[in-house]
Structure to design on (465 residues):
């Protein structure tokens, strides 16, 4: 009996051992799973924390870059970052802007690094627009990138004057009512508080514009580089036989007319947008009128000759009808600049003309007014005694040329008045497009209109596996 009982006890002990081993194995596996889970939770939390840090670094980098642009490089707010090192000067640079390029990389704290990947502007210099920024932020330790994130923002860009804070009434549009590479103003006036500005591209100081002590400038004087737009050509067929007269009689051009006699004997042509284009070699007028009616649409007259391409003397002149038409409805246009120092074209208006309501743009020409000035500008007087906006004058509109001033008696200090409408820049924008709404403006980046971000995985972030 004892032998049987011992055998049974030994058999029971033999069965218990595997159960004990299995239980121990299960407990160990559970402990390992729990430890692994805890480790994964810990490392996951670390990665999430690093990802948040990378995103915060990118956001801080965006704030720094925008602040640098606003403070010292506002003219670059309307330029893609690829062109920051050589920006166009279609809006020139205010005196409070710095040359060069703002820093686009930097560090945040001990381990943060940011880099601007792109800045893209969508808008115009005249109205402003929106800029899209893409910033990369990284967490770095011991030379390795542990986490990286991309933050993308869209911000509003608004124009303002160089001297006035944003949101306050502006004192100038920055638009050049009189523009030239060189200007000899003499006793001429450029009137209009908002847009009666003088812009001399190759001057080095205000003294270079040659104004005497009787000259009145209603706006500001701007000095410095400015990229000028090229004049789009007229329909090609019009260049085959340009109209020309040396002793012109009365000439009448009516936009939209079907009468060839009202379209320079067929040398004017209306396009699909309702603009009438006329190509002429030269017009020399004495005691007669060049009368243009733009009630049916804008008229653009392209001068292709060299030397004296237009001159009105005696009682001759330009009459732009109707009187209420925008100045930009009548555009007098010269040849594009050839890069040398000489003026290929001369364009001389007569002072005291009935209605020189126009915009003249001669990139390679000299413009001026000869004869007695009309001297009839009617200007509002502001509370501080200064002049406000004006009407009348010898030219009502704007003049852009290679040079303006005293050549062959033109603009010889006889009180010539150029009166610039306050909305002249807007007129050119409407008639010619954003490239022609040039001027000196400042810009400011305002609030964020769109925001998004994403975290890069380790491979894309450049982190060690």
């Amino acid at each position: 009996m004892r032998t049987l009982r011992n055998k049974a006890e030994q058999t029971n002990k033999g069965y218990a051992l595997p159960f004990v081993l299995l239980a121990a194995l299960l407990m160990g596996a559970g402990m390992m799973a729990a430890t692994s889970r805890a480790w994964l939770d810990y490392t996951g939390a670390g990665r999430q924390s690093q990802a948040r840090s990378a995103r915060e670094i990118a956001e801080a980098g965006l704030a720094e870059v925008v602040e640098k642009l606003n403070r010292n490089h506002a003219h670059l707010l309307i330029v893609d970052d690829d062109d920051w090192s050589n920006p166009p000067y279609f809006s020139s640079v205010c005196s409070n802007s710095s040359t060069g390029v703002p820093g686009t990389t930097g560090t945040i704290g001990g381990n943060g690094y940011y880099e601007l990947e792109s800045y893209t502007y969508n808008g115009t210099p005249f109205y402003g627009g929106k800029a899209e920024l893409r910033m990369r932020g990284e967490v770095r330790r011991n030379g390795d990138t542990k986490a990286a994130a991309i933050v993308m923002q869209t911000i509003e860009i608004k124009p303002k004057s160089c001297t006035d804070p944003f949101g306050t009434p502006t004192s100038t549009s920055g638009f050049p009512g009189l523009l030239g590479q060189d200007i000899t103003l003499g006793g001429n006036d450029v009137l209009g508080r908002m847009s009666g500005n003088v812009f001399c591209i190759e001057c080095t100081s205000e003294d270079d514009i040659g104004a005497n002590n009787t000259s009145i400038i209603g706006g500001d004087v701007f000095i410095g580089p400015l990229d000028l737009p090229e004049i789009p050509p007229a329909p090609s067929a019009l260049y085959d036989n340009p109209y020309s007269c040396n002793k012109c009689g009365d000439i009448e051009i009516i936009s939209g007319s079907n009468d060839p006699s009202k379209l320079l004997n067929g040398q004017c042509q209306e396009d699909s947008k309702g603009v009438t284009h006329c190509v002429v070699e030269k017009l020399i007028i004495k005691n007669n009128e060049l009368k243009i009616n733009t009630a049916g649409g804008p008229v653009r007259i392209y001068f292709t000759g060299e030397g004296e391409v237009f001159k009105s003397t005696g009682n001759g002149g330009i009459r732009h009808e109707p009187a209420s038409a925008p100045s930009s409805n009548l555009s007098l246009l010269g040849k594009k600049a050839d890069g040398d120092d000489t003026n290929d074209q001369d364009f001389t208006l007569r002072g005291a003309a009935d209605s020189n309501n126009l915009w003249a743009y001669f990139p390679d020409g000299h413009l001026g007014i000869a004869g007695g000035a009309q001297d009839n500008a009617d200007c509002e007087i502001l509370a501080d005694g200064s002049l406000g906006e004006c009407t009348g004058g010898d030219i009502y509109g704007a003049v852009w040329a290679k040079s303006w001033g005293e050549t062959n008696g033109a603009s010889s200090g006889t009180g010539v008045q150029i009166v610039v409408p306050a909305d002249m820049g807007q007129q050119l924008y409407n008639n010619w497009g954003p490239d022609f709404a040039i001027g000196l403006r400042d810009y400011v980046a305002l609030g964020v209109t769109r925001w998004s971000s994403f975290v890069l995985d380790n491979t894309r972030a450049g982190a060690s596996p």
Notes: The longest helix spans residues 2-72. Residues 57 and 137 are 5 Å apart (CA to CA). The longest strand covers residues 144-160. Residues 38-44 have pLDDT under 50 and may be disordered.
